[in-house]
Design a protein that fits this description.
There is one protein chain. It is built from 11 helices and 6 strands. It has helices at about 10-20, 40-45, 65-75, 95-105, 105-115, 135-140, 185-190, 200-215, 220-225, 235-245, 255-270, and strands at about 25-30, 50-60, 80-85, 120-125, 160-165, 165-170. A 6-stranded mixed beta sheet has the order 3-2-1-4-6-5, sandwiched between helices.
Length: about 280
C-alpha cells in the first residue's frame, strides 16, 4: 500500500502559514506522543526558522510513559522547549504559560528596551491533522474557541485567538507534506488516524500494526484480546479478533476489514494500552 494524502486545502494552509509567519514570535508544534518524529511535518522546521520553538507531546496518556521521557530528552538536546500534555484531560496545560515566557524571554526583553510593554506573545499552533490542535487550544483557553473533531481536516481556515493579555494564538489547519519519502512514516500516520481511513486498505494496515505490537507489546495484546501466549502470527491474531468480536459477513465468512477497524479503533483510543510506535534510539 502506498501511503499518501494531500488534499487541496493543505496546500492552501501551507501558503497561509508562509504569509503569517512574519507576525509570529513562537511556533507551538503539536505532535502525537505515540509517533513524535513521524508526526512532525518537516515543512514546519523550514517555516519556523529563527523563531522560538515549543513542541507539545499531545495524547501523552496514550503513549508509553517511559518513551515520553526519552522523547522529552531527545527534543531538548535538539534545542526545542518541550512538554508532555493531554489536551482532553488538561494534564500539563498549566505548565505551558511559564514555558512560553521562557521560550520568548529575549523577545520580551527586546520589547521592554524599546518601551513596548504588554504586547502579547504571538504564537502559531501548527501540526499535522488529528494530533489534537483544536482540542489543545480549547483546553488552554478554558473555553470552546475552535471546532474539534475526531477526524483529520476539521479546521479549514486560520483564526486569531486572544488567550490572555500575554498570549495570542493563530490556529491553522493541519497540514501533511506532499510526498512521504519514507513509507514507514506514512504507515504510522495511518495508524493514528491522520489520514482518511477510506483511502486505506485497513486489513493490511492492521496486519502491519499487529506485527509491531507482537514484538513490543504482546502482553497488552493478550490482555485485551485473550488469545494464547504461543500465538505469534499477525493474521491468526486478526482472525481471533474477528471471531471474538463476531466480525462476519453474510454466510459466516470472516470480515477481516471489520476486525481491522476494531483493532485500529482500540489502538487509537488507548484500549490496548499505552503504546509508542517509535523510540529515539531507533531514529538513526
Amino acid at each position: 500500500m502506498n501511503y499518501q494524502w494531500y488534499p487541496g486545502h493543505m496546500m492552501k494552509a501551507k501558503r497561509m502559514m508562509q504569509e503569517n509567519i512574519k507576525l509570529i514570535d513562537l511556533v507551538i508544534e503539536i505532535v502525537d506522543a505515540r509517533i513524535p518524529l513521524s508526526s512532525r511535518n518537516p515543512d514546519i522546521d523550514e517555516l519556523g526558522k529563527n523563531k522560538s520553538r515549543l513542541i507539545l507531546l499531545n495524547k501523552s496518556d496514550l503513549a508509553d510513559a517511559g518513551c515520553n521521557k526519552e522523547w522529552i530528552e531527545y527534543f531538548k538536546k535538539e534545542g526545542f522547549y518541550v512538554l508532555e500534555i493531554n489536551s482532553k484531560s488538561g494534564a500539563g496545560i498549566k505548565s505551558i504559560q511559564g514555558t512560553v515566557r521562557e521560550a520568548c524571554k529575549e523577545k520580551i526583553e527586546r520589547d521592554k528596551k524599546k518601551g513596548i510593554i504588554n504586547r502579547p506573545v504571538r504564537a502559531i499552533v501548527a501540526g499535522i491533522p488529528n494530533v489534537g490542535k483544536s482540542t489543545f487550544i480549547n483546553a488552554y483557553a478554558g473555553r470552546a474557541c475552535t471546532k474539534t473533531g475526531n477526524k483529520p481536516g476539521v479546521t479549514k481556515g486560520k483564526q486569531w485567538i486572544r488567550l490572555n493579555k500575554d498570549l495570542e494564538l493563530l490556529d491553522t489547519p493541519g497540514i501533511l507534506w506532499p510526498k512521504f519519502e519514507n513509507q514507514d512514516v506514512g504507515r504510522k500516520l495511518a495508524y493514528i488516524g491522520s489520514m482518511n481511513d477510506e483511502i486505506l486498505q485497513l486489513e493490511e494496515l492492521a496486519i502491519d500494526l499487529l506485527t509491531y505490537l507482537v514484538v513490543h507489546y504482546k502482553e497488552e495484546l493478550i490482555k485485551r484480546y485473550q488469545f494464547e501466549e504461543g500465538l505469534d502470527e499477525p493474521l491468526k491474531i486478526l482472525e481471533h479478533i474477528c471471531e471474538d468480536r463476531k466480525c462476519y459477513k453474510k454466510g459466516g465468512e470472516i470480515d477481516y476489514s471489520k476486525g481491522a477497524s476494531v483493532l485500529l479503533d482500540d489502538f487509537r483510543s488507548g484500549k490496548i494500552g499505552r503504546i509508542t510506535l517509535e523510540r529515539p534510539d531507533e531514529m538513526v
